Amino acid sequence: MRKRILALGGDGIGPEILNYGLQAARDLAIRAGIELEICHGLLHGASWDAHQAFCTAEVLHMAQQADAVLVGAVGGPRWDNIRVPGGAECQDGLMYLRHHLQTYLGVRPSRARGPLLDRTPFRSGVADRADVLILREMCGGAMFATERGQRIIGGKRQGFDLTAYDEAEVARFAHGGFQLARRRRGHLVSCDKSNVMESYKLWREVVTEVSKDYPDVAFENMFADNCAYQLMMRPHDFNVVLACNQMGDVLSDLAAVFAGSLGMLPSASLAANPGTGPIFGMYESTAGSAPDIAGQGIANPVGTLLSVGMMFTHSFGQPKFELQLETAVSQTLRDGILTPDLGGTATGAQMTRAILERLPV
Ligand code: NAD
Ligand code: MN
Description:
Largest sheet: 10 strands, mixed
CATH topology of the largest domain: Isopropylmalate Dehydrogenase
Bound molecules: nicotinamide-adenine-dinucleotide, manganese (II) ion
Strand order of the largest sheet: 2-1-3-12-11-4-5-10-8-9
Distance between the termini: 20 Å
Shape: globular
Structural class: alpha/beta
Order of helices and strands: EHEHHEHEEEEHEHEHEHEEHHH
CATH class of the largest domain: Alpha Beta
CATH architecture of the largest domain: 3-Layer(aba) Sandwich
Number of helices: 11
Strand content: 15-25%
Number of domains: 2
C-alpha cells in the first residue's frame, strides 16, 4: 500500500515537532507495510516570509493530492497582526487549508495519565480517570465569519465577526460526533449558548434532531459556560463534548489540563465522518507554536506523535498502530523519560526516541 503525506512544519516549535512526527510515521509505516511518500511545504509565517501568503495555491494543491497532512504548528508574534485581503481563511495558513479541504470534524482526545497526575491542579480523585473527547467544528462559526471587520459606529471603533452556522454544517458535524460517541462509552454532551444567541438556538435544534438517529447514545444539551465548569468539577461524568469552532478551541485547551500539559494533546481534523474506509485528514498537536520555548529542543513530542497515530487510524485504516503508540507513550511516561513541561529533563528528540524504542517489535 502507498500513502502520501504532506508535511508542513509551520512556525516556532512546529518544524521541530513535525520532525518527531515524521520519524514516528516512517517507523510505523515500515511496520504496517506502507510505502510512505512524504512531500514538504511551507505554512503560515514560513510561507508568508517566502511568498507573502499564509498558504499558497501550490501547497493547497499538494494537500489535495495527499492522503493526509501532518502539521507542526503555526503562528507567532511576527505574523499575528498581519492583515491580508480576502476572507477569514486568508488570515491564517491552517484556516486556509481547513476551509478549502473542508476538514470540519475536529477530534481532540484528552485523558489523565497516571504518572502525570501530580502535574495537574486537581486534588486526588477528582480527575484521575478523566477521559474526554472534545469535538470541535473546524470550518464555520464566528472564526470563519463572512461578515467581519472594523468600522466606526457612533464615532467609536467597532470590531465584528458574524456568528453563523447553517443547518447542514451543524448536521454533518453532529453526525460525526454521535458516530464517534457510539464507539466510546456512548455519552454525548453538546454545548452552546442557546439561552442568549440565535445561532446557537438553531445549533441546539439541529443537534437534537440528529440525536434521534442515535437512540443508543445518551445525549444532553448544556450551556457552554456551565459545561466548562462541570467538566472541571466532575470530569468523570464526561465522555464526548460537541462544540462549535470557537468554544471547541477553548474547551480543548482546557481539557489538556487533565493530561498534565498542552503538549500532550493530539488532534485530527477530518473531511468526512469516520466510517469503514480511510478518509482525508489533517493531523497536528492541539497546541500552538509555543514561541516561548522554540529553538531549545525541549518541546514535548507526544501531541504530534499521537496525531500520527490518529492518522494511521483514520486516513490509513490501520488502528492497531495508534494503540501501539499509545502504549509506548504510557510506558515512556512510567519510565520517567519526560520533557521539561512534564517535569523532566529529556529533550524532545530523546523522548521521541524513547517512545519509538518502546513500540512492539
Ligand atoms: P501555545 O499553544 O503555542 O502555547 C501555550 C503554552 O503551552 C506555552 O507555555 C507553551 O510553551 C506550551 N506548549 C505548547 N506546546 C508545547 C509543547 N509541545 N511542549 C511543551 N510546551 C508546550 O499558545 P500561544 O502561546 O497562545 O500561541 C502561540 C502562537 O501559536 C500564536 O501565534 C497562536 O496564534 C498560534 N496557535 C497556533 C495553533 C496551531 O498551530 N494549531 C493553535 C493555537 C495557537
Ligand atoms: Mn487552539
